[in-house]
Amino acid sequence: MGAQKSIHAGKAKIDVNVDLTHKLCTSLMLLPPIPIRDGGSPLSLVIGSLCIKHPNLFGGSEKLDVSWDKGLYDSTVLVAYRRPRPEWLPQQCFVLQHSVSPEIGVHGTPVDNFSRSGSGGVNLSRLSLGVDLNEPASSNWTSTTSIKFEHVNILSDDGRSITRDMEGFPVTCSGSTHDSMVVLKQESRYAKATNDSFSRFSMQIEQGIPVLSKWLIFNKFKFVATKGLKLGPAFLVASLTGGSIVGDMAPYQAFAVGGLGSVRGYGEGAVGSGRSCLVANSELTLPLTKTLNGALFLDCGSDLGSGRLVPGNPALRQGKPGSGTGFGYGLRYKSPIGHLQIDYAMNSFKQKTVFFGISNLGL
């Protein structure tokens, strides 16, 4: 349940969105993965966002966006400034972002036969500053290049800077409380759709640039390929996700396998976390009514045996299997105010889990 409100102040626009989804989930006895940190105050149960937009900051069509997103356990502040350029040139966007979030995928502790992940006492405070260059679209392809400075500080659950996890292993690459890096990122995306099918592909390549000797030097890539196909009244969607990283690496940079966006039936990162990964997903949906669809799904994923290559080997210490399969069924409800998703999944250890999600729900 949520509420949305737009306020116009001169040429500026303020969008406010408050989402009380977690209260609904709590009433259904779907417990959160980690405890509420501020003593269970009413504010801790609110998921919301605040966005301020100015379409003409200096009179030359410059755009300024300032947004704040608050989750149950995370928070993100984003400032983006765009200035107009000719259409045939890359469009520039200067970005300043700060986020604080729990690192569950790598340092989280699997519980209940790997069906959930609890807090591992490691949180990321990430500050980034840089510029995005959006290339002009060509046919079905789009491309974005960015270069950013990133400063990642590691915090405990009570907000203290830390250098090691609960078992005494380093949580950064540098060995101090933080890592710094300059990252050059190239992302290419392809999309094509017809009445009966669609195809999507994206590739991301990140390169750490050694501006200073102690800054991280690495190369990381990730791809996602998705195909959707209509089969009579049903619709089949299959996707393949993979990636790898070489060079300097902090544990929090590992690929986490498991969770709602990965292998359902497992907690976030409960399958494994490694320098490489490969995840395959398939889902068949069938219409039950005009607004309600049933779904059958099968997910599988692996860290490709690379968990031992992550500094400190957190996956082995937590007993993660390294590979896993999840399957089950669910419901998809669509309405003018939002989408509701309920999945009933079982993992390789025959542990049953219910996933409940609400998106774009507002009043």
From TrEMBL:
Organism domain of life: Eukaryota
Gene Ontology, cellular component aspect: chloroplast outer membrane
Entry keyword Coiled coil: no
InterPro entries linked: Bac_surfAg_D15, D15-like
GO terms classed as biological process: chloroplast organization; embryo development ending in seed dormancy
A Pfam family it matches: Omp85
Location(s) in or outside the cell: Plastid, Chloroplast outer membrane
UniProt xrefs under Gene3D superfamilies: membrane protein fhac: a member of the omp85/tpsb transporter family
Keywords: Membrane, Plastid, Plastid outer membrane
Magnesium recorded as keyword: no
Domain Bacterial surface antigen (D15), chain residue ranges per copy: 56-352
Name this polypeptide is given: Bacterial surface antigen (D15) domain-containing protein
